Amino acid sequence: MKKKLQLTSLMVLALFVMSACTASGTTSEITAESTDFWSRFVYFFAEIIRFLSFDTSIGLGIILFTLLIRTILLPVFQIQMVASRKMQEVQPLVRELRERYPGRDIESRTKLDQEMRQLFKQHGVKQSASLWPILIQMPVLLALFQALSRVEFLKTGHFLWINLGGVDTTFVLPILAAIFTFLSTWLSNKAMVEKNGAMTGMMYAMPVMIFFFAMYSPSGVALYWAVSNAYQ
User: Fold this and answer.
1) Which of 49, 55, 96, 127 has the fewest other C-beta atoms within 10 Å?
2) pLDDT digit string, tens, across residues 17-48
3) Helix (H/G/I), strand (E/B), else coil: 217
4) What is the phi-psi region of residue 226: left when phi exceeds 0, alpha when psi lies from -120 to 50, beta otherwise?
5) Which H, E and C letters describe 126-190, residue by residue?
6) Which of 149, 130, 133, 131 is nearest to 15 (CA)?
7) pTM for this structure?
8) In terms of Cα–Cα distance, which of 187, 165, 150, 207 is closest to 8?
9) pLDDT tens track for 194-215
């Protein structure tokens, strides 16, 4: 859980940096003629969103794009949930190991680490499984952020009263993104057999981070985040 929080924080920080770069005008426009791999990847995402908008609303395209991505990632999130459940089931055994090796010296910590690795292997616990959804979504979010900042037909797109290429000055989307992030995390924690301080801290810290991230990001990214967590 701690690693997941750190990785999520890193993702949000990376998007903050990209937001600052966009605001300072250091990014160039991406077009169909762009040749480098990342620009072509970003433009590909932009074309998918335009196709899903049905020539009516870029906002609709982003919503459908989000639902499509989340549906495709359902197997990955299922793996994450199974891994989290298995981790919860072995917590009593983990506590026993910590009580057996309470020392802070190198020998005790090494022995504890070896025993925990063996325990996780015996029970089929894969700690890395909980990180896959975040790792997979990171390039998607970065590409979406870049598309809304650097592809002309997305920069000028609108959803209701909101310019999707600019920040939401009404704070509606940042607030919705934060609320749905809190609800999805709260529901996940509610399903856990055992709870700890890290999980509780993440439940409250994540919505705050997402709110501030959404404040300085293109509104289309905030829309993606709100719909994604509502779907979850």
Assistant:
1) 55
2) 555 444 444 457 888 888 888 888 888 888 99
3) coil
4) alpha
5) CHHHHHHHHHHHHHHHHHHHHHHHHCHHHHCCEECCEECCCCCCCCHHHHHHHHHHHHHHHHHHH
6) 149
7) 0.71
8) 207
9) 555 666 777 778 888 888 888 8
